[in-house]
Amino acid sequence: MKTETVNGMPLETWTPQEVRAALQAGQIVLIDVRTPQEYMFEHIEGALLMPMSFFTPATLPGQESKRIVLHCGSGMRSDKVARRALEAGLPMIAHMEGGFGAWKAAGLPYTGTDMATGAPKPVTP
C-alpha cells in the first residue's frame, strides 16, 4: 500500500491483492465508480456501484468500522473520486491501483457476462 497526503489527510493506494484480502475479511466497503454499463458487463463480487458522474461524498456509507476503497477501470477515475472525498472531509478513503484492469491482470476472480445467454457468470482466471 502506498500513502500520500492530500489536504492533510492520507490517501491510500492499494494493490488488487490487498483489496481482495480486505474484502474477503470484511474490512472494507469496495465501491466501483465506473458506469452502470461497465459494472453490468463485469464487476468484482461484493462491490457497490456509485458512478463517478453521480458521486456525492455525503452519500457514501459510514466509515466507523470499515475503510472505503474505490475502484474504476484503470485507477484514474477512482483517484479523482478519492481526492474529491478527501476534500469533502472524509478521512478513510483509498483507491485500487490499476483499477479493474489490474484486478483481472492479477488473475483474481470476478463476475462477468455469459455472452451466449447474457446472464452473469463467475470468472476465475
From TrEMBL:
Record InterPro entries: Rhodanese-like_dom, Rhodanese-like_dom_sf
Rhodanese domain span: 24-112
Ranges in a coiled coil: none
GO MF annotation: an example: thiosulfate-cyanide sulfurtransferase activity
Protein name, per record: Rhodanese-like domain-containing protein
